[in-house]
Design brief:
The complex is a heterotetramer of chains A (358), B (871), C (273) and D (186).
Chain A: H1 3-6, H2 11-23, E1 41-42, E2 46-47, H3 61-85, H4 89-113, H5 132-159, H6 164-193, H7 198-202, H8 206-225, H9 232-254, H10 266-279, H11 281-291, H12 297-327, H13 347-354
Chain C: E1 16-21, H1 30-39, E2 65-71, E3 88-94, H2 102-106, E4 112-114, E5 120-122, E6 143-144, E7 151-152, H3 158-162, H4 168-172, E8 178-182, H5 183-199, E9 205-208, E10 220-225, H6 244-269
Parallel strand pairs in C: 1-10
Antiparallel strand pairs in C: 1-8, 2-3, 4-5, 6-7, 9-10
Chain D: H1 2-7, H2 10-17, H3 29-32, E1 42-47, E2 56-62, E3 65-71, H4 84-87, H5 89-94, E4 102-105, E5 113-115, H6 117-135, E6 137-140, E7 143-154, H7 161-174, E8 177-181
Parallel strand pairs in D: 7-8
Antiparallel strand pairs in D: 1-2, 2-3, 4-5, 6-7
The chains are: A mainly alpha (358), B alpha/beta (871), C alpha+beta (273), D alpha+beta (186).
Chain lengths: 358, 871, 273, 186
């Protein structure tokens, strides 16, 4: 090529080629650098390797909602049962108040995430059993009401002794919190599991368990951070939850489905694996250690709690982000095996992509 | 016009789009009908689903190819070789429709002894004047017919200034009613034999060599199409500017007409030639021409010094002794009465001298070069965007800077109106805004739904559109603009009654107006176009009633009948009662949907077959009847013998369907009227990468005009090492011409947002371009950048042994609108074919290099560098 | 004004459908524009993709009809209508209006509803933009318009259908490759068309209508040549609700486990001292 | 008040009918009364302004505003269909880029200025008249010419026949302009 022509070469093109040689692809729409295959629609490439599924359009508030909801659901249960069974009135009261606060924050987060927050009430327009989002909205509303009721009961108690209203509110409040706390603390696992997003529906069985136990652990952890570091009961619950998480983590690692790639690779993979450690083995170790020392017990319990909370947050953010990555995979929904057959810009290679499968 | 006009008598499409559904084979060539006329294409698809074979011949694999049965890649500019090949095949293999050819064409007519065919003279016909680069057609005439020589002027139809639109007949040069025939077709000088010899070398081998079409593919096309012929089968040919925009455009269409005549396809359902027009009323704007060389109804403008001395002389020159043009004087007098009313009297030759005389090439490209040379003062542009749409855009835009004033009327601020402000020439420093003295008026125009009026569509059908709402703000219709401007001039002329203003003072200019803005009544204009009987004041229902004694008037004789009564506007009638749509609009002439339909019956007047029964002679009623208005004298029996004394159609035999011709026949051979010869002959485009394999002595069409000058340079041809590739330009479905009606609309712009060049994978590899890269395309005129659309749909062709790469380039983009891009037409040269002065856009040469051209003045430096380069 | 109207003769209550026949499509994109014009949808970007002539790329909140362009190989002498090979295929995509619709099942507000024509309609006056439908559609059709806050998709021109008018895209389609009519009739028509195409040697022609999956069939069927994957049509689309049973089961199990853990812990370890 | 609020609450209807919330019980008032935007419009017959196929169009308008432009099913040519350009005819008329005022550029000026229509008409008339005064040739070597080549016209293929007729009549037949051309060739 003559000088005049080479001086023509736009620097932009060289950048594109560099990017291509570095990353194998170029992000800009449709751009393919020389040596890479022609954009194609074929049984091997799908439609120009354009992903079929739409990405989740949730704001970062949603994973946070998952965390808060999971925690306050579990707190509701703890708060309703703890002092019935044992003499843990303060702990139970604290749990109930936290649950009430949590459910309120949950509602705020959920509303804030809506495209049209003013229309939040439309959530209660119908009740749709087959829609997890609908069920969840009702559960959230119900739980908030019952939590509020039991909190109100507590306040009344401090004013008048044995007021019948307080008794009534306490009874229905705690019953409600126990009953609705169960779905409320883990329905979000069902929510994302029962969607078209491959990485999620591949784990549709384990996600509710994982999210639930994660909620329980953060509930325990929050109580501990609020000072309840003496309760062995809490420590025991924490151990159970952490054990569950550890098992789930191992399960996930053992499953080799390609749908799960986002849980093992990239930023999302890192988040989820970190979550596994922070809410599994690490808290277990710390909690066990706390049993054999009285001096450091408090610190160790607080460390375990902190690790559990951060783990739970990583888990929620990790899984939601994984959904976005998974939605971008154009092969899975089309059952197209990897890797992409096309390798070079060579005419024959391009041809092989266009030839019909017999 | 001349391609079809000289062959069969009228320049318009001979059939209706709906009739395509009755075809047994459809040949689409020089058009991507599915892309440019999608809704018309439904009839092709319908035919296809009924088993009709659809053949698409095109350099690119387009959306039309993608829905056709056979696609044939063809080197842009080799069309005549391909069609000549088909003609050769039909003649050699006896596939021609004998009865039709014998009775309905001039195959049996014998030529003069001194006629020399291009085949025998290396590409030139007899009568060539090397000095003037033009033909004297005298030797082309039929044996026995008298040349119309007047005081040493060139023969009618061959005037230098001619623009070729007044060619709805041909044969003006001689008295074509006197000639000899040989019905055995054996006479060596009879047209049939001449034709055979002329196309003898257009063999499948030659087609392969020149067009790059493999022989077996060519033969499959030939067999398939030739089969759509005879009593019970018909085939139709669809073309568009893919044929016309060549230096041999007219002759390409001639070749198609010859093929259709040989196969007996004119005037029959599912047959004929469908010229596909690209603008809503492009047919209308030649019927009622905003063109320099004709008057409404294809009557020629008087040429200075040639035939314009006296009215008698003018009439004598342009009327014939038989056929419809014997009524030329009736049409012309009625026309002059329409324009000049009472001021047109027998004494003043019906105001003939009010008409301006044509003194030269006043066509767009002709006067644009004058504009560039500072010879023009003012310009009106209405609904056109030459800054983007016209060839050699740089010259076009620079020329406008030499105007004193410019009036642009459009819906949006188009590039033409802002050349002084933001054109590439300003950006590159070739022009400086402050240096440009041109005054510019940009006037808002009314949209089609904001005014009433008629469009004439591609099948000669006038359809009325009704005003629905008022135009916004100061937007007005062109009707309003011209009418009120006219009133001002009339006023001024009335005050200064000088000879100069005679025409203005004589001009009839009274129209009823309506509404707050005083919008003139379009229907009143239509009434004037239709014509009246001045004695009774009644509107006329057929041009047959027009008279030469000044008792009738008609603004456009072929439209007479569109408004037959005060309370009727046939163009606005909307109750179709048959497939061809009778009852819906008005098709000229006389609401005939398929013209020359006398040919749909055998010479004896009976239908050729049940399948193709269309128009036939009813013996009881003694008249022609059938599914269409007969394009013939209704009560003239098939066995009628011509009576020259009567004139008109009665001066023709009863078995001669082509009534515009003085012999009533379809012309395989055109004895005069075409400036580049009586028969189609292949010449290479003005810029071509290959030698002319048929006539090495004459690379390109001898009489064509390159307008070569420093600001309109050409590549050396053949083989210019700087420009190794073939370039062809075209349109996309998603945009409209120069973009004024599409690039400003979001819903269309998003569908095709950027200028791109379609290239093959091979060319991409050759030039080191990868998909979506920017590339720069270079011709001697300009360089532009586009995105590369690398696609297997483009394929290199093997021409005379070596690979020819083609670059496809849509031309819709400019620098204004929602989506912008370089102007593809900057690459083209201003050239003129000999007959209609159209430029060549479909076949030229270019270079393609990776990367985007630099901005500003650097771009021009790059261009010059590249032009000097000789590896 | 006289002359024919575009009344379909279909009464509310009759189930309607599209049948988009790619073998009749000429890739003109009239359906895309007619849809945007009727529904007043704005343009969604002016990017050049280089994917043949497709610059629309995909269905979305502001693209409810999308014509796909699939390029194959070309051979001189063979047009796109000949059976020998796929050269250049066009196919106009649209919301599938599933028999069992993921978006419809997922919508918590009842914004998405089943209409009297059997189609799935998103009520813009109800939608609160929770965007759960977006991830519940196995065809990736529904999308939330971030600027507007609500989700959008093909309305099946319910407003037109209620007045007996044909959907805008089907009406505009120059070659009638987008057919609109009664579902049962179109199912038959599709079979007949397929038989015709195969008799012409187009053995690669097929009807896309996933009746064999949990989607249980769609109200906008397609006739395509080649593999559905080429057109981004999933071979086995499933409605996410099929996962519900398993999900709730394990949720219940885990909830019980939690209560168990809480009760046990406090019972044995709750007491002070 | 509360009663009818409740009666419009789909959940209660669900309970009453046992429906799952995907059907009629969830239809809003708007949905129930959904009408095409062309309901109650006047309809005028038009012709597509783009290519020369000549598709029939139905122009729906209400109170002087264009509402929609669609294909005319009665047309024997287009049978109600339109291509993408034809389908966009409504936007062609209503998009914000439409010109509504006359724009005028003075010699050497860097930008436009708005002027009113009458002024523009008079200015244009003056310029034509002046150019014609100076350049009109009545005769050349004793022969009638009646011509000026100093003023040119371009365009017509997108205009109505009636408009082309008046342009040719005034410019050629009245003013003696011969430089008249449009998009049409063959």
């Amino acid at each position: 090529m003559s000088e005049a022509q080479s001086s023509f070469r736009e620097s932009r093109l060289d950048e594109i080629r560099r990017e291509a040689s570095q990353f194998g692809t170029v992000q800009q729409a449709g751009i393919r650098a020389a040596g890479s295959p022609l954009p194609k629609a074929s049984p091997q490439t799908g439609y120009y390797q354009q992903h079929l599924l739409k990405e989740p359009q949730w704001t970062p508030l949603v994973p946070l909602y998952f965390f808060v909801g999971g925690a306050s659901g579990s707190l509701g249960v703890i708060g309703s049962l703890a002092d019935l069974i044992g003499e843990n009135d303060d702990l139970a009261r604290k749990a109930r108040h936290m649950a009430t606060a949590g459910s309120t924050i949950s509602s705020v987060l959920l509303i804030a995430d809506l495209g049209r927050p003013s229309r939040f009430l439309n959530m209660l327009r119908i009740f749709k059993p087959q829609s997890v989002m609908s069920v969840g909205s009702w559960v959230l509303s119900g739980f908030s009401a019952f939590a509020a009721a039991s909190t109100l009961a507590d306040i009344l108690d401090t004013q008048i002794d044995g007021s019948p209203i307080a008794t009534f509110l306490r009874t229905i409040g705690r019953t409600g919190c126990t009953v609705l706390g169960m779905p409320f603390h883990n329905y979000t696992g069902v929510l994302i599991g029962a969607t078209a997003i491959p990485v999620w529906n591949n784990r549709v069985r384990s996600l509710p368990r994982e999210f639930g136990m994660s909620g329980l652990q953060s509930a325990v952890s929050l109580l501990e951070l609020s000072g309840e570091t003496d309760s062995n009961a809490l420590n025991a619950i924490g151990l159970v939850a952490a054990a569950f998480e550890t098992w789930e983590g191992i399960e996930l690692l053992r499953t080799r489905d390609r749908e799960l790639a986002p849980t093992k690779q990239g930023l999302t993979g890192a988040l989820i694996q970190t979550a596994g450690v922070l809410s599994g083995p690490l808290p277990i170790a710390l909690r066990l250690a706390s049993l054999f020392t009285s001096r450091r017990r408090r610190r160790l319990r607080q460390a375990a709690a902190l690790s559990g909370i951060i783990g739970s947050l990583c888990l929620r953010y990790g899984w939601v982000a994984a959904g976005t990555v998974s939605a971008r995979d154009w092969r899975i929904p089309l059952n197209i095996p990897e890797p992409d057959a096309s390798t070079s810009f060579d005419r024959r290679a391009a041809d092989s992509l266009t030839r019909r499968t017999p | 016009m001349p391609g079809l006009g000289t062959s069969v008598g009228r320049g318009g499409a001979t059939t209706a789009q709906q009739s395509l559904a009755d075809s047994d084979a459809i040949l689409i060539m020089g058009s991507s009908m599915a892309e440019q006329h999608p809704v018309g294409y439904q009839w092709v698809v319908e035919a296809r689903e009924r088993g009709c074979k659809v053949i698409h011949v095109d350099p690119r694999f387009t959306r039309t190819s993608a829905t056709a049965d056979i696609w044939v890649p063809l080197r842009a500019g080799s069309d005549i070789v391909f069609l000549g090949g088909l003609i050769h095949y039909v003649l050699e293999n006896e596939k021609w429709f004998k009865e039709y050819v014998l009775h309905y064409t001039n195959a049996s007519t014998i030529l003069r002894d001194d006629y020399v065919d291009a085949e025998d003279a290396g590409g030139l016909f007899s009568g060539w004047d090397a000095e003037k680069k033009k033909y004297d057609p005298e030797t082309w005439l039929y044996k026995g017919s008298e040349p119309k020589k007047e005081n040493g002027q060139s023969l009618p139809g061959h005037h230098d200034a001619g623009g070729g639109h007044a060619k709805d007949r041909g044969g003006e040069a001689g008295n074509t009613t006197e000639f000899e025939t040989d019905d055995t077709l054996q006479h060596p000088r009879c047209i049939f034999q001449v034709l055979k010899r002329h196309f003898a070398r257009y063999t499948p081998e030659m087609v392969e060599r020149s067009c790059g079409v493999p022989q077996d593919v060519f033969l499959r096309v030939a067999e398939t199409y030739a089969a759509a012929s005879g009593r019970s089968k018909t085939g139709c040919i669809c073309y568009a500017v893919g044929w016309t925009q060549h230096s041999t455009g007219v002759q390409i269409i001639r070749a198609a007409a010859i093929l259709q005549l040989l196969l007996g396809n004119f005037g029959r359902p599912g047959g004929g030639i469908l010229a596909l027009r690209g603008h809503a009323s492009i047919q209308g704007s030649t019927d009622i021409p905003t063109l320099y060389d004709i008057l409404p109804g294809y009557m020629p403008m008087p040429f200075f010094d040639a035939d314009s001395k006296t009215f008698e002389q003018y009439i004598k020159q342009h009327s014939t002794e038989a056929g419809l043009w014997t009524k030329f004087e009736d049409f012309m007098v009625s026309f002059l009465k329409a324009w000049y009313g009472d001021a047109a009297t027998k004494e003043n030759q019906w105001g003939f001298n009010f008409l301006p005389r044509v003194t030269g090439d006043h066509s767009e490209l002709g006067y644009w070069l004058d504009m560039k040379d500072g010879k023009l003062e003012g310009l009106f542009v209405m609904g056109q965007n030459p800054a983007v749409g016209a060839p050699n855009g740089r010259l076009q835009r620079k020329a406008m800077a030499n105007l004193k004033w410019l009036v642009v009327r459009d819906l949006v601020e188009i590039e033409t109106s802002t050349f002084w402000k933001d054109s590439p020439e300003i950006e590159r420093g070739e022009l400086r805004t402050e240096d440009i003295a041109t005054e510019v008026f940009l006037m808002p125009a009314a949209g089609p739904a904001e005014k009433s009026g008629s469009f004439t569509n591609t099948q000669r059908l006038l359809q009325w559109h009704n005003k629905a709402v008022e135009p916004p703000g100061d937007a007005r219709s062109e009707l309003w603009f011209v009418y009120h401007l006219g009133r001002m001039f009339k006023g001024r002329a009335a005050r200064e009654r000088t000879p100069k203003n005679d025409a203005l003072n004589a001009l009839t200019w009274e129209l009823p107006t309506e509404g707050a803005v005083a919008e003139p009544s379009a229907e009143a204009v239509l009434a004037e176009i239709n014509g009246r009987d001045l004695t009774t004041g009644k509107l006329l229902s057929t041009f047959e009633d027009l008279k030469r004694d000044g008792t009738t008037m008609s603004g456009c004789w072929i439209y007479t009948g569109v408004k037959p009564a005060e309370n009727r506007n046939v163009a606005n009638e909307r109750s179709a009662h048959d497939a061809l749509g009778h009852g819906w609009g008005f098709a000229w002439p006389k609401d005939t949907r398929i013209i020359y339909n006398r040919a749909s019956a055998a010479p004896d007047g009976t239908p050729w077959s049940e399948e193709k029964k269309f128009v036939w002679w009813d013996e009881e009623k003694r008249e022609w009847t059938g599914k269409d208005i007969t394009d013939f004298k209704k009560d003239m029996p098939p066995d009628h013998k011509r009576d020259l004394s009567k004139g008109g159609l009665e001066a023709l035999d009863g078995d001669k369907p082509f009534g515009m011709h003085p012999d009533g026949r379809g012309w395989l051979y055109v004895n005069s009227g075409l400036k580049d010869g009586p028969l189609p002959t292949h010449f290479e485009p003005l810029e071509s990468p290959v030698e002319n394999p048929l006539y090495p002595q004459h690379q390109s069409n001898p009489p064509s005009d390159k307008k070569q000058r420093p600001d309109n340079p050409y590549a050396s041809t053949p083989h210019d090492s700087r420009f190794p590739f073939v370039l062809t330009t075209y349109r996309l479905t998603e945009h409209h011409t120069a973009g004024g009606m599409s690039r400003s609309l979001s819903h269309l712009s998003e569908l095709q947002p950027e200028l791109f060049a379609e290239i093959s994978l091979e060319l991409a590899e050759l030039t080191g371009v990868s998909p979506n890269d920017y590339v720069t395309i270079v011709t001697p005129r300009a360089l532009i950048s586009a995105r590369a659309l690398v696609t297997p749909r483009m394929t290199p062709l093997i021409i005379q042994g070596h690979q020819i790469h083609q670059v496809g380039l849509p031309y819709h983009w400019g620098w204004k609108g929602i989506v912008t891009g370089d102007v593809a037409n900057d690459l083209l040269a201003i050239s003129q074919d000999p007959n209609v002065r159209i430029m060549e856009t479909k076949g030229l040469v270019c270079n393609l290099i990776p990367g985007r051209h630099p901005a500003g003045h650097k771009a021009l430096d790059e261009l010059h560098e590249l032009l000097e380069e000789r590896p | 004004m006289s002359g024919a109207t575009d009344h379909t003769g279909i009464q509310p209550g009759e189930v309607t459908s599209f049948l988009t026949d790619s073998t009749l499509c000429i890739g003109c994109k009239a359906c895309e524009v007619a849809c945007k014009e009727w529904n007043g949808i704005s343009a969604d970007g002016y990017d050049f993709t280089g994917w043949s002539y497709d610059n629309t790329a995909a269905l979305g909140h502001s693209t409810w009809r999308h014509v796909k362009f699939v390029e194959g190989e070309i051979t001189p002498g063979i047009g796109g209508n000949s059976a020998q090979q796929l050269s250049w295929e066009f196919s106009s995509d649209v919301c599938k209006h599933c028999e069992v619709a993921g978006c419809l099942e997922a919508c918590p507000t009842g914004s998405l509803v089943r209409t009297e024509f059997g189609s799935v309609f998103l009520q813009p006056d109800i939608c609160n933009g929770c965007s759960y439908c977006v991830i519940s559609c196995p065809f990736g059709v529904v999308q939330k318009n971030e600027d507007d806050g609500r989700a959008f998709k093909c309305t099946f021109c319910t407003d037109r259908q209620k007045a007996g008018m044909m959907p805008a895209c089907a009406k505009a389609c120059p070659t009638e490759s987008i057919k609109f009519g009664r579902l049962d009739e179109l199912k038959v028509e599709a079979q007949v068309r397929l038989a015709t195409l195969q008799s012409r040697g187009m053995t690669d022609a097929q009807i896309y209508d996933p009746t064999h999956t949990s989607v249980k069939g769609i109200h906008s069927m397609f006739i395509i040549r080649g593999e559905p994957e080429t057109y981004n049509l999933p071979p086995r689309p499933e409605v996410p609700t099929i996962y519900l049973k398993d999900a709730w089961k394990s949720a219940a199990f885990e909830a019980v486990a939690m209560v168990g853990a809480v009760v046990a812990s406090f019972f044995f370890l709750g007491r002070k001292g | 008040m509360l009663r009818d609020l409740l009666s419009r609450w789909p959940v209660l209807q669900q309970i009453r009918t046992g429906s799952d919330g995907t059907g009629a019980e969830s239809w809003s008032e708007r949905t129930r009364n959904l009408k095409p935007k062309t309901a109650g419009c006047e309809v005028t017959r038009g012709v597509c302004p783009y290519c020369a196929v000549g598709c029939g169009q139905l122009v729906y308008h209400k109170d002087g505003k264009l509402i929609s432009i669609e294909g005319d099913p009665a047309s024997p040519i287009s049978r109600g269909h339109l291509c993408p350009k034809g389908s966009n005819t409504h936007q062609l008329h209503t998009h914000p880029g439409r010109l509504t005022k006359v724009k005028y550029r003075r010699p050497h000026a860097k930008d436009w200025e708005d002027i009113d229509l009458d002024t523009a008409m008079n200015m244009i008339a003056d310029r034509v008249w002046d150019a014609r005064e100076r350049t009109f040739e009545e005769t050349r070597n004793g022969e009638s010419l009646m011509q000026t080549t100093a003023i040119a016209h371009l365009g017509g293929a997108t205009l109505d026949n009636e408009e082309n007729y008046l342009i040719k009549k005034l410019f050629s037949g009245g003013l003696g302009m011969v430089c008249i051309s449009n998009q049409a060739r063959i």
